[in-house]
Amino acid sequence: MKRPSKHGAANERAARRRPATAGTKRLKTTNGVSRRQSARSARARDARPATTQRQTVSLALVQFAPRKGDVRANFERIEQVFAALRHDKEGFPAVVVFPEASLSGYFVEGGVAEVALPAATVSQRLNRAASAALGASHEPFDVVLGFYEDDRGKLYNSALYATLGSTPALRHVHRKLFLPTYGVFDEERFVSRGRTIEAFDTRHGRVAILICEDACHAVSVTIAALRGAQIVYIPSASPGRGLEDVEPANVRMWRDIMRVAAAEHGIFMVYAGLVGFEGGKGFTGASRLMGPFGDLRVEAPFDGAAIVRTTISLADVNIARAALPALGDLESNLSEITAMFDKEVANRPSGAPSSRTRP
Fold it and tell me: 9-44+56-347 architecture in CATH?
């Protein structure tokens, strides 16, 4: 796929018309996951080397169909992804991003308790998978992965950020705040709600994680940006809904949400989507990277497993925020906006729903 070199609407429309094949190469791996190679952005290639931090970040966005309810098999699939990336001519990525509920599938509902794991256990098993695929002395890399979490009997829809290698570390766990419980969704019956959005430092920039519907609420991205995030990672499991032109309506909705949020906050948004079918519901992958100008850098097809490679320059964040200082304007009015939120909270009925434990 040839990515738009600038952030004009015409370029983005052109990129959308050829999401699957133009300017790309599809490679088959041992587990049937195909990898899509994309040209690196001109800005990333031309960025000057950083003196105090790594300015460029190589990313791999993985979309695949987990085997429903089979945690062991899905760890094996992840190991196969690592092995495939080992032979990538672009080199192994700095950060590998997986979708929401990658270890079990999304619609496990009352079976959440059987597939949920502590975050530390997931991090350890990911490190073992990396060692098995790459060898014990492999270079460290980071991973973002969605999973159902068991925190001492309390269940969450979570995503972790971990460093894998000789000195592995669990960097952060985000718990989904906005639990859809409407239409085909029933999350709040089975998992507890997260309570915070945090930004945290990594070797590859300051980042935040939002899970699926979290990112549909503009305030979530605003909080992440105000807390210093340069990149927002979005593990997602989005079932196809409606049809617009030749793609599901939710694919276009996500593209629009990400474009506006990225441009408003001058932030990279990295989306990894589940694919496959569960209970007759089909997930639309369309994993993508949106640049801080609101420019679509790369996008995977919505209807199949794929690994998308791209490289970004964190210097683009400062350039975008200087060109459109909307985040700075927001910071200037933050006390007034906070007062308005406080007033709304005071005017609403008290008594939030309690957290759920194992069903």
Answer: 4-Layer Sandwich (3.60)
SS3 347: helix
What stretch of H or E contains 9?
A: helix 9-17
Domain locations in the chain as residue ranges: 9-44+56-347
Residue in 147, 170, 181, 175 with CA at minimum distance from that of residue 66: 147
Cα–Cα distance, 24 to 20 (Å, whole number): 8
Cα separation of the two ends of the chain? 45
What are the start-end ranges of the H helices in 177-325?
218-226, 249-265, 315-323
C-alpha 257: how far from chain center: 14
Of 34, 94, 36, 89, nearest to 64 by C-alpha is 34
- How distant is the alpha carbon of residue 117 from its chain centre? 20
CA distance 324 to 359: 48
Could you tell me the pTM of the whole model?
0.83
Tokens matching residue 15: 């990129």
Return the closest-CA partner of residue 21 out of 6, 36, 10, 32. Answer: 36
Tens-place pLDDT, residues 28-54? 443 444 444 443 333 333 333 333 456
pLDDT of residue 45: 33
